[in-house]
Specification:
The complex is a heterodimer. In chain A, strands 2, 4, 5, 9, 10 and 11 form a 6-stranded mixed beta sheet that branches. Chain A is an all-beta fold. Chain A has no helices and 11 strands. In chain A, a hairpin with a 6-residue loop joins strand 4 and strand 5. By secondary structure, chain B is mainly β. Helix content of chain B is about 0%, strand content about 50%. In chain B, a hairpin with a 3-residue loop joins strand 4 and strand 5. The N and C termini of chain B lie far apart (about 35 Å). Classes of the chains: A mainly beta, B mainly beta. Chains A and B meet through strand 4, strand 5 and strand 10 of A and strand 5 of B.
């Protein structure tokens, strides 16, 4: 099955700096890579996703890049703000023909220091 | 408001005492799933369902049961809870088919088994 590794497990940045979280996956058949943000006391929420036919995707201050050859993808947050503090999960999945099953990374606790 | 509702939010029980965590969604989603979240392990899938009366095992199904008698409800049953099932549990749902693969998560159930 798929295995997703996520680094770092914790990340502290100064407000206004950039943050980068990296993930690697094992199954070359994976073709969908979402990122979820979990705020304290809440369930994860999708913030951005990318498919394997695209190398980069941006949405305001967040961007995701994908390197299929190396089997890794990254989340980039620019101009970080205190409200970006949360746990971030990457995930990978492939279309099994029935329904996609996501395999999640172990999570990154991001703290933005004021 | 579109949402996934889990109950209870917090539950403390003792080894061997059967319990049920309820999950309900109001978005007419075909797909529903249960995850457990443990430190350093991320989100691991327990069971999922693609429609009424259709359920299947995820990555960590041992010790759990589910049922899908109605489209909106997907309860998680622990027939004989053990301390290693102490965890944070999330129910999630989404539509099947189409380009939107966003998973909607509930707010979580923190379970402690003594």
């Amino acid at each position: 099955g798929e295995n997703v590794e996520q680094h770092p497990s914790t990340l502290s940045v100064q407000e206004g700096d950039s943050a980068v979280i990296k993930c690697t996956y094992s199954d070359s058949a994976s073709n969908y890579f979402p990122w979820y943000k979990q705020e304290l006391g809440k369930g994860p929420q999708l913030i951005i996703d990318i498919r394997s036919n695209v190398g980069e995707k941006k949405d305001q201050r967040i961007a995701v890049t994908l390197n299929k050859t190396a089997k890794h993808f990254s989340l980039h947050i620019t101009e970080t703000q205190p409200e970006d503090s949360a746990v971030y999960f990457c995930a990978a999945s492939w279309d099994s023909g029935s329904a996609r099953q996501l395999t999640f990374g172990s999570g990154t606790q991001l703290t933005v220091l004021p | 408001e579109a949402q996934v509702t889990q109950n209870p939010r917090y539950l403390i029980t003792v080894t061997g005492k059967k319990l049920t965590v309820t999950c309900s969604q109001n978005m007419n989603h075909e797909y529903m799933s249960w995850y457990r979240q443990d430190p350093g392990l991320g989100l691991r899938q327990i069971y999922y369902s693609m429609n009424v009366e259709v359920t299947d095992k995820g990555d960590v199904p041992e010790g759990y049961k589910v049922s899908r008698k109605e489209k909106r409800n997907f309860p998680l049953i622990l027939e004989s809870p053990s301390p290693n099932q102490t965890s944070l549990y999330f129910c999630a749902s989404r539509h099947l088919g189409g380009a939107n693969e966003k998973l909607f998560f509930g707010s979580g159930t923190q379970l402690s088994v003594l």
